[in-house]
Task: structure prediction
Amino acid sequence: MTIRDEAADQYGFETRAIHAGQAPEPTTGSIQVPIFQTSTYVQDALGQHKGYEYARTGNPTRTALEAALASLEGGNFALCFASGLAAETTLLYLFKPGDHILCADDVYGGTYRLFVRVLADYGLKFDFVDMTDLALVEAAIKPETKAVWVETPSNPLLKIVDIAALSQIAHAHGARVVADNTFASPYGQQPLNLGADIIVHSMTKYIGGHSDLVGGALILNDADDHERLTFLQNAIGAVPGPLDCWLALRGLKTLAIRMRAHEQNAMAITNFLLEHPAVEQVIYPGHPSHPQYEIARRQMCCFGGMISFLVKGGLEQAQRVVEKTKLFALAESLGGVESLIEHPTSMTHASLAGSAYLPPANLIRLSVGIESQQDLLADLAQALA
Ligand SMILES: *Cc1c(COP(=O)(O)O)cnc(C)c1O
Result:
């Protein structure tokens, strides 16, 4: 139900993050959007209400968050959900049995699990291809392909896919482009402006930014898809609570400044790892050594804090390193102010075991936080020694 706050469109990103959809509350003047902790709304007379009837259908804290997100992604509409996967599940109800969804081969493990181990049983068809090679995309599209699903930067290999070129191919075949923009965040890249049709976010990551909430969002321009998704948001009911919406809104306010700090630290760590004798390869989209650096530079304005690297010595060495860091906490998830380290094969991507898409065993993923740079470098140095 939420439409972008057009009054905010004249302002820059940082201003919209703080003000779009977030006018002071009119009855009290509260400068912050309140946490509307309610399940229902009183009606003045039958059918006469102030735009809210029941809190699954709508909540003013959620409305504010949705308006802010739509503004930041340059979309007409946004809808929020209880988690990133709740947003994805609701989105997938746009499709019918027999529809084919072409998905990037290096997606979030939970996305892969939802597609292959849940939705495939209900008649949706999925294929996975390396979308850094657009000829493979072209070849894999079928007459029944209804969506092309991309994640860029991808997880955990941080592959970069050319969203504009991918969108041209998908649209020529009548398929929508869904872009999971979780890793870049709305500050790092705006896929709708590059031709994508629907953006997926896990707000749990950079949007929340403080590792204190789980949430998801969809942002889009098409009014018909929006109408159907608004119906599905209410009919399926996987909505976020008002406190989580409020936390996400508070996170949004500092998104730009946090993303720049993540990027600065990540760049320094990339340079350190590239020189380190125990490291075989470093993957960071913001460094010229990245194979798709030119595309990254064209479509992203900030590269964020995600780094993956391969250590020499295989599985045991990777497991030793992730257990030896002190500031980098051993944990799943990403995008918070604190630095995290993880081993994808045993943690976030364990659900891919037995598939062709399991990442290399000597891969380590860092979510670089915004702590002091010299402390993070020293921690990695002692862990790799
Ligand atoms: C975490 C994540 C998801 C799932 O989001 P949840 O909020 O954990 O449900 C989807 N895509 C990406 C890229 C993620 O990192």
